[in-house]
């Protein structure tokens, strides 16, 4: 475990030294990793830090408004790139290619914003497990193996590259970040795109966003899981009214974990799962079936792609 106070001091010094008097853009998603980086960088370089939040159209319900409200005190640019991401993903169903397309789009958006502000350096909240999983060929995290080889940035700075998630949370506490950031569930950079199997379409994203909202409403406060969410698996049959219909199959996942490298499903009583299933199928008419995933990691991963 890191000594949080010492880590903070060293990270601030390192950011200040590495950036000189340059402007720096930070990729801010509002999760604990990027929020910790933003807090460190803001202490190190003040208003030479430009925070960029990209609405990829793959974000959770209410996320963009939440970020705009929460980080309004920083020099924050909210970029609406929903159309750009959804079009770039059209026709692609291979999970690795989806991640690479998203990673590349992110960088292109950051480059565009950086050009407007004269920033040459990019700061991002890559953590140790992101690097291990990308280097080990397990998958390309959008911010590591998913990054394009050619970039306009002169330097990429990753102040928390050696930390595990629980260490990042400790640093967040020591930095005085609000508990809702410190304990926020991880949300993957590629967003809801890794929670739909196969091609990303607007319809699937709308369905998974709504289902995810219901899962979080029902499970977060009750079980405080490390992570819980919904994913769209595909289409199956169901009966609605007197008709056999083709409807979406939603998987509900809730896991506990220390660092995301391994995970165990949360034991949830049937009546609670029943409420989740009945809310999802009644509030989202195009869903025909809801299943609960009881697989640990390994052999499953936490996300679906
Ligand atoms: P998996 O699905 O590999 O996920 O068991 C482990 C943890 O990492 C998160 N995750 C990601 N985070 N970019 C991220 O920033 C990604 O590409 C990515 N993929 C997975 C996942 O939500 C879980 O917490």
Terminal-residue CA separation: 30 Å
Structural class: alpha/beta
Q: What portion of residues belong to β-strands?
A: 15-25%
Strand element count: 9
Average residue-wise pLDDT: 94
Q: State the order of secondary-structure elements, H for helix, E for strand.
A: HEHEHEHHEHEHHHEEEHE
Explain how this protein is built.
This protein is of the alpha/beta class and 305 residues long. 42% of the residues lie in helices and 19% in strands. The chain has ten helices and nine strands. The chain has helices at 4-19, 32-45, 63-70, 82-89, 95-117, 128-135, 165-174, 179-182, 202-223, 270-283; strands at residues 24-27, 49-55, 76-80, 121-123, 155-157, 227-240, 243-256, 264-265, 287-292. The protein has a five-stranded parallel sheet with strand order 3-2-1-4-5, sandwiched between helices. Strands 6, 7, 8 and 9 form a four-stranded mixed sheet that branches. Strand 1 (24-27), helix 2 (32-45) and strand 2 form a beta-alpha-beta unit. The longest helix has 23 residues, at 95-117. The mean pLDDT is 94. Residues 99, 139, 141-142, 186, 188-190, 194, 227, 260, 297, 301-303 line the site of xanthosine-5'-monophosphate.
């Amino acid at each position: 475990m890191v000594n949080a106070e010492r880590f903070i001091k060293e990270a601030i010094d390192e950011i200040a030294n590495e950036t000189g008097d340059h402007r720096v853009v930070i990729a801010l998603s509002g999760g604990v990793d990027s929020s910790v980086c933003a807090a460190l960088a803001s202490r190190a370089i003040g208003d030479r830090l430009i925070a960029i939040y990209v609405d990829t159209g793959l974000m959770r319900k209410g996320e963009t408004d939440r970020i705009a409200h929460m980080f309004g005190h920083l020099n924050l640019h909210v970029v609406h790139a929903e159309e750009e991401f959804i079009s770039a993903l059209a026709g692609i169903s291979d999970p690795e290619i989806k991640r690479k397309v998203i990673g590349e789009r992110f960088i292109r958006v950051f480059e565009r914003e950086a050009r407007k502000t004269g920033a040459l350096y990019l700061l991002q909240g890559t953590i140790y497990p992101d690097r291990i999983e990308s280097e080990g060929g397990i998958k390309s995290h959008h911010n590591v193996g998913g990054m394009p080889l050619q970039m306009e940035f002169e330097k990429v700075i990753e102040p928390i590259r050696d930390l595990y998630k629980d260490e990042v949370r400790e640093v967040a506490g020591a930095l005085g970040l609000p508990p809702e950031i410190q304990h926020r569930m991880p949300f993957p950079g590629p967003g809801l795109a890794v929670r739909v199997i196969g091609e990303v379409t607007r319809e699937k994203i709308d369905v998974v966003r709504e289902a995810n909202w219901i899962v979080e409403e029902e499970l977060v406060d009750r079980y405080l899981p490390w992570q819980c969410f919904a994913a769209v698996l595909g289409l199956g049959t169901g009966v609605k009214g007197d008709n056999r219909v083709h409807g979406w199959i939603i998987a509900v996942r809730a896991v506990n974990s220390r660092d995301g490298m391994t995970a165990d499903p949360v034991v949830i009583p049937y009546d609670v799962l029943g409420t989740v299933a009945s809310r999802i199928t009644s509030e989202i008419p195009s869903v025909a079936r809801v299943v609960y995933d009881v697989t640990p990691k390994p052999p499953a991963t936490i996300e679906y792609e």
